[in-house]
Amino acid sequence: MSQPNIDDGRRFAGAAPSAYTQIDANIEQDRATAAGVWDGILGWTGRFPEMYDAFYRDCPGGRPVLKFLRHEPSQTIVGTGGVGPRRVLWRNLEIRAGVLAHFCVTPTHRSVKPAIFMLRSMVEAARGRFDVLYGFPRPKAAAICKLAGYKVGGELIRRVKILRHENYAARFLPRPLAILVGRLIDLAFRISDIARHPTGRATPFAEWTDAVDPRMGELWEKTDHGDGWTAVRDTETLRWRFDRLLSTRRCYLLLGDAPGGPLSAWFACDTHPSDASILTINDFWSKDGLNALDPSAVRTLCRAARDEGFHALELRFTGSEQAHASWANEGFTERGRQPLYVLWLNPDLAGDFAGKMHITDIDND
Q1: Cβ distance 326 to 365 under 8 Å?
Q2: Cβ proximity of 133 and 345 under 8 Å
Q3: Are the CB atoms for 313 and 302 separated by under 8 Å?
């Protein structure tokens, strides 16, 4: 399609919903058009071409949907909405799941009716191609999802553990004093950990790597996936989702009994985009499968991250009570929740998966 104009954000406030139409994007040709809408709205400014190519042109799960919202009086593109295919297991079947992505409207056209119109057009485009749609909208967009028929299917819980307390103490104390107090707090926590976990049990061998290791996919293949909702984690998917899609500095911690041997657990991590002292755990898997995580694996992760100089670890995931306890018992405290919105398109597969999910940032866009 020809290159449409991009709204400059200064005109057309209050335009009637009938002034908008939804059009199909040409994924091969419309990268610049999409990036023009995203600029100033979505994150990763300056890396939109890279993000677009990875998500829309090179998705291993099939062809994504990309829609544009066009303001007819000006013939300008003022919104985008995408649906990306994701491989998901549900009730021991691989279903056709689609994650909502890049749903945004330029500021002067940001009203309820155009947004609902755009979201509903994405749903209609997805019918017959996907069994279920899901997404993690921001609070303002969550109300739009409800009006478009989406239901809350669960919550993504954010957990944080402080590894070095000097930055935290500096919120309340002068920096020199904060360093001293922080180190004293760190020492107290180490003594407490030693008392709670005396030596004697062998700790896993840990190694960092900058790229997905095939052993990560092998561990996924040989473990129990349960009958709930969980994303497929084969090597191809992991490489696309983590090596290929955007990050600040991706790294992986691999745990096993010996160097080069089979893995017992792995963690896909990324340096936080706005605070380099925080390491974000985007995904994880272990020999225990869905329901739990060996405490020694979590402790090894914390020790390895601290040795690398990180001050805190953060994690967002939804799982069973037992799985959450694996993290909470090691000092990861809850710091917030984000709802997961779901719309089933295939009634034969629809069901309530509350408490039967293993969802992490691998499932996000």
Answers
A1: no
A2: yes
A3: yes
How far apart CA 301 and CA 255 sit, in angstroms, is: 9
Residue 263: which of 303, 223, 302 has the closest Cα? 223
**C-beta separation of 337 from 158 below 8 A:** yes
Four-residue CA torsion sign, 221, 342, 151, 326: positive
Query: Phi and psi of 284, rounded to 5°?
Result: -160, 160
Sign of the C-alpha dihedral computed for residues 65, 97, 328 and 183 taken in this order: negative
Whether 12 shows a pLDDT value over 60: the answer reads no
pLDDT of residue 6: 44
Helix (H), strand (E) at residue 323? helix 321-328
Q: Taking 70 as the threshold, does the pLDDT of residue 189 lie above it?
A: no
pLDDT confidence band for 304 (50 / 70 / 90): very high
- Please give the Cα distance from 44 to 322 (Å, whole number): 35
pLDDT tens digits, 331-356: 999 999 999 999 999 999 998 877 67
Alpha carbons 66 and 26: distance in angstroms, whole number = 8
Identity of the residue numbered 252: Y
pLDDT mean across residues, the chain: 87
pLDDT-derived band at 169 (thresholds 50, 70, 90) equals low
How far is the C-alpha of 61 from the C-alpha of 84, rounded, in Å?
8
Q: How large is the average pLDDT for residues 32-36?
A: 95
SS3 49: helix
Backbone angles phi, psi at 34, to 5 degrees: -60, -45
* Burial (CB count <10 Å: 0-12, 13-18, 19+), residue 84: buried
CB-based contact 137:341 (threshold 8 Å)? yes
Reduce the DSSP state of residue 22 to 3 states and report it: strand
9: Cα separation from own chain's centroid:
29
CA 316 distance to own-chain centroid? 8
